[in-house]
Amino acid sequence: MAKVRVSSEPFDLAAERAALTDGRADVGALAMFVGVCRDEGGALVALELEHYPGMAEAEIARVAGEAEARWPLSGLTVIHRHGRIRTGEDIVLVVAASAHRDAAFEAVRYLMDWLKVAAPFWKKEIRADGGAGGWVAAKSEDDAATAKWRG
Amino acid sequence: MKVLYFASVRERVGLSEEEISPPAGVATVADLMRWLAGRGETHAAVFATPAGMRAAVDRVHAKPGAAIAGAREIAFFPPMTGG
Lengths: 151, 83
Prior knowledge:
Helix content of chain A: 25-40%
Shape of chain B: globular
CATH topology of chain A: Aldehyde Oxidoreductase, domain 3
Low-confidence stretches of chain A: none
Oligomer: heterodimer
Structural class of chain A: alpha+beta
Order of helices and strands of chain B: EHEHHEEE
Largest interface: A-B, 28 and 17 residues
Helix content of chain B: 25-40%
Distance between the termini of chain A: 24 Å
CATH architecture of chain B: Roll
Number of helices of chain B: 3
Largest sheet of chain A: 4 strands, mixed
CATH topology of chain B: Ubiquitin-like (UB roll)
């Protein structure tokens, strides 16, 4: 059962890693992805992340469950933040633990590819010049990225 | 039933949620969008040409043809940009 958390609070990478490895000797591979808020060449100071409470957790848990059914994972943690996230701060964390690297690498990729198109979060730009920031547009590459996991 | 709006859809409708009682003939997500378009100019601007609109019925992604009978919560929102 994956650990899923949706929160406005920052997360602690070392603590999340430790939670998947402490006290056990069967983990041979730990793959971690961290999505970070970038400034788009200095144009942004932050992103405001809106989410659908309840559904956001449920969709992440659903995708995490699919990954656990697909790969032999000994642990899986997914944390997604919402609210105001300044440039340089972390937005999302996926950590997968397994005996071998392939399962860990692939599970993290799977989580991020599906989370992008299925988890109900929306990013609004907070501009450095104080101008009205727009909603970040969805990318067609994100839909295409899920295609490789089908069939 | 309750209808929720998120992100750009919320801003365009001017509401984050509203309580509605559509008539019995409104059976699917697509029917509901057509019915919502008739609620006024602001709703019409959002729902009359809902290109790219996404929906969820009771917090599960739903296609336009999905049934809404018995649903407690229906949400409309743009394509997602999390991660």
